[in-house]
From TrEMBL:
Location of the PAS domain: 132-168, 258-306
Domain EAL as annotated: residue spans: 557-807
Protein name stated in the entry: PAS domain S-box-containing protein/diguanylate cyclase (GGDEF) domain-containing protein
Chain ranges of the Response regulatory domain: 8-117
Species classification: Bacteria, Pseudomonadati, Pseudomonadota, Gammaproteobacteria, Methylococcales
Molecular function via GO: catalytic activity
UniProt domain GGDEF: residue ranges: 415-548
Matching PANTHER family: BIOFILM ARCHITECTURE MAINTENANCE PROTEIN MBAA, DIGUANYLATE CYCLASE DGCP
SUPFAM superfamilies xref list: CheY-like, EAL domain-like, Nucleotide cyclase, PYP-like sensor domain (PAS domain)
Pfam families to which the protein is assigned, alphabetical: EAL, GGDEF, PAS_8, PAS_9
NCBIfam families linked: GGDEF (TIGR00254), sensory_box (TIGR00229)
Naturally occurring in which organism (per UniProt): Methylomagnum ishizawai
Length: 807
């Protein structure tokens, strides 16, 4: 026999086995049972079939249970939602009208469905002695959770055993104002007046009240948190006859840990949090709110924010916010409040309405954030975005903005604008040899001195690296620009103090003028940049104006520099190898690796064209590392083929010694290639090796101990001092090219002396640039150990070396 066959129950669960089992249980009600296995199917079934109850459980592949609740809440005929909870999923529990904790017994599920149907049909509850009252009693007693009913005046009619256990007492039915006889409070301990009791609200406003958490004080001193769900009951004519209240324990349910966590968060939050009822009366406020508004709790609790009393006028900003609440019950914006000292301070206020399932507002929650630290942080970020962190000067971004504004003003007032590029001469050498701390200190000192040379309305900025730019505005005559440039050049030539070092530097200055040299920001900067390179080319420590012809050459040079950077990245560099021959036996004793640039358009470019650019651009160390690694890999490949070539010789940069990176780079290349150190020779120019201090000598000694042969290249350029030479852990000297000894006795005498000196120091000697048989014969007579040059072989591409060695 069908109990209530008119409307259906919707069973939604992502687990098909569990869904079928629940359908079998619910079918005992005698009403249609609809199934849904996805969120989409569930929402569609609610809208098309209008079930009176949605039993929601499990997980779904296309969403979460709370997603279903949120979508169907917009429907005026939304069913009662019963969530079957299997874990601590507070979001879904909060979104539903009620829940049961898994495993759910069959009797619990059936009883709940009967109750919801009865309430949905507007069941009449006449006098407790009537037939409807008897049916209500059966329902209440069958419920597994605490439940009780009152008449329209709030007098207790009946309750079940679970309610008596929850209350810790057995009150007499008929007791007046049962709600008022209970000691109720909010979770924060604030007493809850009888008028705000959920049951009283339901009877007064004739609407269900959904899940406002309250605490019941038991006679034994215990406290139990509950979620009450009171629902008004009417008779067949629609007259209110009472109310039914279901109490769900909150401390032991899946929501409780989350609720306690949020209570703790609110207590210790830095943001102010205030909770009001639907009329704007404050029912709770955390310590941060009291601190921000500078009012004690006794003044705040119970006050109405829409009608602040005397002494609380500074809370009037809430009234403006309330008036601006949107249709969704939300307002946010910046407000200003007074601190305890009377100062105005910015705050960020967010107000959200808390509504029940029917859309009725239960509470408002306001969050008040102190914006002063945020604004200070934003100001700091704004400063860092437009200023150089090392010197405090405007950075490139801010300089360009000021230059753009200056050009607009100059055009309107018909004035000139000058841009100066100020580049420190040889700054890289100071930075490499003395370290970054000294380099940074020098840049800071330069920034101060530059600023002192210009007017207050002018701008000095750090453009990047060791480049500074100066913007001179409101210029009537060009003559004044030269005076400023001379003043800057003289100031830069005075010694600087940085990290205990006295440093002498100079500056190369390039000047671009508006409107003569450019009308736009980029054009003017480009003109000043090219003029600066002209100043460097003319000997440095001077200033130059923009010149179109020179600019073209500078542009070409910078274009080649950019192409060289890309050549390293794109592997356009190749190695050629020139044999070194033992003069006594005629065998190959070594191969010197020589880098070439295989340009995609210009063909093979020799190193004398691009190595100076690499040095100026700071690419020489990267280039040297590339040659070292590539040569070691190729040498190992030749050895694996059974080819013997003695040692592979690689030219290295003195900058690597100064930076302390050479030894690490060599070990890395040897480890990567598997080449023995005894197969590697490093050649360092005489001028660079003689300039090394103790750290550089220590690196050389470590490499010599490893078995790497060290040679001084271009020996004989008169940089070497004998005592210093004797300290170097080198084993070979490479003589600078000599002329024809038969026709130039001076060259012959110098070669004899250098070879004799090397042998007296027990060093081997190698000669380079040998192109004639007479040179070879002379060197052999002087017992020179080895030689290389066109007489023996030109530099060979990699693929030709194997044939040369085999022949």
């Amino acid at each position: 026999m069908a109990i209530f066959p008119s409307r259906a129950v919707l069973m939604a669960d992502g687990n098909i086995r569990r869904r079928h089992l629940r359908r079998k249980i619910l079918s005992e009600l005698g009403c249609p049972v609809i199934e849904a296995g996805t969120c989409r199917e569930a929402v569609q079934a609610v809208r098309e079939r209008r079930p009176f109850l949605l039993v929601l459980g499990g997980r779904f592949g296309d969403g979460r249970p709370e997603d279903i609740c949120r979508q169907i809440r917009t429907d005026a005929a939304a069913p009662w939602i019963l969530y079957l909870s299997e874990r601590n999923d507070g979001a879904a529990v909060s979104a539903a009208d009620g829940y049961l904790v898994e495993p759910v017994k069959q009797a619990e599920l059936i009883s709940y469905a009967k109750l919801i149907h009865r309430l949905g049909e507007g069941a009449a509850v006449g006098h407790p002695l009537g037939s409807e009252g008897r049916y209500l009693r059966e329902l209440v007693e069958a419920l597994p959770m605490a439940a009780y009913a009152t008449d329209a005046e709030g007098r207790l009619i009946l309750y079940n055993e679970a309610a008596a256990t929850l209350w810790g007492r057995r009150p007499r039915p008929g007791a007046d104002h049962w709600c008022g006889s209970l000691a109720l409070s909010l979770p924060n301990g604030t007493p809850l007046p009888h008028a705000h009791c959920p049951m009283a609200v339901a009877l007064r406003e004739l609407r269900p009240v959904r899940g406002q958490r309250i605490v019941i004080e038991r006679p034994d001193g215990g406290r139990v948190a509950v979620l009450p769900y009171p629902t008004p009951l009417r008779d067949g004519s629609g007259v209110l006859v009472g109310a039914l209240n279901i109490l769900l324990e909150a401390d032991g349910d899946p929501i409780a840990p989350s609720a306690r966590l949020w209570a703790t968060v609110a207590e210790h939050a830095a943001d102010g949090i205030v909770v009001t009822d639907a009329e704007g009366t404050i029912v709770a406020a955390n310590p941060a709110f009291l601190r921000i508004t500078d009012h004690p709790e006794t003044e705040v609790l119970g006050q109405n924010l829409l009608r602040p009393q005397a002494g609380l006028g500074d809370l009037a900003f809430f009234k403006e916010a309330w008036d601006g609440l949107d249709g969704g019950g939300t307002w946010l914006g910046e407000v200003w409040t007074r601190t305890g000292t009377g100062l105005l301070s910015p705050r960020w206020l967010v107000i959200n309405a808390v509504k029940d399932g029917s859309g009725q507002v239960l509470n408002y929650i306001g969050t008040l954030t102190d914006m002063a630290p945020v604004k200070q942080s934003l100001e700091r970020l704004e400063y860092l975005a437009h200023h150089d962190p090392l010197t405090g000067l405007p950075n490139r971004l801010l300089f360009r903005a000021r230059l753009a504004h200056a050009l607009i003003q100059a055009k309107r007032l018909r004035q000139q604008v000058a841009v100066m590029f100020v580049d420190l001469d040889h700054f890289k050498q100071i930075n490499d040899s003395l370290g970054h701390a000294v380099g940074d200190g020098l840049l800071q000192a330069v920034a101060v001195r530059l600023t002192e040379q210009v007017r207050e309305q002018d701008t000095v900025a750090r453009y990047g690296g060791d480049e500074f730019v100066v913007l001179l505005e409101e210029l009537a005559k060009e003559a004044g620009i030269a005076n400023v440039a001379e003043k800057i050049a003289k100031a830069m030539a005075q010694p600087f103090q940085a990290e205990g070092h006295s440093l002498n530097v100079t500056a190369s200055i390039g000047i671009g003028l508006y409107p003569r040299d450019g009308w736009t920001v980029d054009a003017l900067l480009k003109s000043a940049d090219s003029a600066m390179y002209r100043a460097k080319a003319d000997g440095r420590n001077t200033f130059r104006y923009h010149d179109g012809e020179v600019s073209a050459r500078v542009f070409e040079r910078k274009m080649v520099e950019g192409q060289l950077r890309r050549a390293i990245e794109r592997d356009e560099l190749v190695l050629y190898y020139q044999p070194q021959v033992d003069l006594a036996g005629g065998r190959v004793s070594g191969l010197e690796a020589l880098v070439r640039w295989q340009h995609p358009e210009q063909g093979l470019i020799l190193p004398e064209r691009f190595l100076p650019l690499a040095t100026e651009a700071g690419l020489l160390e990267i280039l040297s590392d590339w040659v070292l690694r590539r040569a070691c890999v190729q040498a190992r490949a030749w050895l694996d083929q059974g080819l013997d070539f003695g040692r592979i010789a690689v030219n290295v940069s003195g900058a690597q010694l100064q930076r302390g990176t050479l030894a690490r780079a060599v070990r890395s290349a040897l480890g990567h290639s598997g080449l023995s150190p005894k197969r590697l020779a490093l050649e360092i120019p005489e001028s660079q090796i003689m300039a090394q201090g103790e750290p550089g000598l220590a690196q050389l000694a470590a490499l010599a101990d490893l078995g790497v042969e060290l040679a001084i290249d271009q020996f004989g350029m008169r940089h070497a001092a004998l005592p210093h030479l004797m300290r170097l852990p080198v084993s070979k000297l490479k003589l600078d090219p000599i002329g024809d000894p038969r026709s130039d006795e001076r060259d012959a005498a110098q070669a004899r002396a250098l070879i004799a000196l090397a042998h007296s120091l027990r060093l081997k000697v190698a000669a380079v640039g040998v192109e004639q048989e007479g040179q070879r014969h002379f060197l052999a007579e002087q017992r020179c150990d080895s030689a290389q040059g066109f007489l023996f072989a030109r530099p060979l591409p990699t693929q030709a070396v194997a044939g040369f060695l085999a022949g």
